[in-house]
Amino acid sequence: MREFVYLYRSEGPLDHLALEGALSSLGVPFRLEREANTSGLVYASKDLFMPLHASLMAIRDDLGTTLSFLRSHADTPLSRKLIVEGLSYFPNSAFFPSDVLLREFYYRDYSSLPLLRGEFSGLDREVYLTAIAYLRSGLDAIKASEAIYVHRNTFNYRLNKFVEATGIDPRDYHNALLIELYEAYGRK
Questions:
Q1: What count of other Cβ atoms lies within 10 Å of the Cβ of residue 185?
Q2: Alpha-carbon dihedral 100, 83, 47, 45, rounded to 10 degrees
Q3: Using CA atoms, how far apart are residues 89 and 130, in angstroms rounded to an integer?
Q4: Alpha carbons 142 and 114: distance in angstroms, whole number
Q5: Positive or negative CA dihedral for 9, 12, 17, 20?
Q6: Less Cβ crowding at N or C end of the chain, within 10 Å?
Q7: How far is CA 113 from the centre of its chain?
Q8: How far apart are CA 32 and CA 106, in angstroms?
Q9: Does the pLDDT value for residue 188 go beyond 70?
């Protein structure tokens, strides 16, 4: 099962042992890495997201501080920036990079665009266009391969190269939305 990184941040100092106990009660295997007294990383499957989101108010009450989690495809400069902003936008919540970006763009704050561009920098044009074709075809690989005039095996190879290069799997809704946000706002 694929592992995601959940960046977390709190407004005040955290009892990391209590946080670890609270996460253990959710019944999803994880690995916690403390970075500072207010932040760290949790590595777990996507199965952690919903129980975590549902439990954050109770966890806040137990820990005595506002706390938020960002589920990201990787620990990147973009995700580091978004967890800081996400704490104020989504206190005591679990959220995705696209959630914070949508909020920023709504308020005409485009400060994350250079970091969003960095998520896709150095990507081969054909590999990128393969991912876009996949999204535009409604996640139908056969239609997408036909639309860009490549064999289905070539299409699969390129889509896998996209995931390998970026860590962003367009078959996941929130990753697909991140790609769409890049396509709409970040691509030059």
A1: 15
A2: 120
A3: 33
A4: 33
A5: negative
A6: C
A7: 15
A8: 33
A9: no
Per-residue model confidence as pLDDT tens digits over 32-66: 999 999 999 999 999 999 999 999 999 999 999 99
Q: Is 41 helix (H, G, I), strand (E, B) or coil?
A: strand
How many other C-beta atoms are found inside a 10 Å radius of the C-beta of residue 168? Answer: 21
CA-to-CA distance for 130 and 78, rounded, in angstroms? 23
Q: In the predicted model, is pLDDT for residue 76 greater than 70?
A: yes
The predicted structure's pLDDT at residue 42: 97
pTM tops 0.90: yes
Contact 56, 67 (CB under 8 A): yes
Q: Spell out the residues 6+ positions from residue 183 whose beta carbon is closer than 8 angstroms to its own.
A: 132
Percentage of the residues of the chain whose pLDDT score is greater than 90: 95
Q: Return the percent helix, strand and coil in the chain, to nearest 5.
A: 55, 15, 30
Residue 32 CB burial class (10 angstroms; 0-12, 13-18, ≥19): middle
The answer to whether residues 131 and 119 touch, using CB atoms and an 8 Å cutoff, is no
Q: What is the CA radius of gyration of the chain?
A: 18
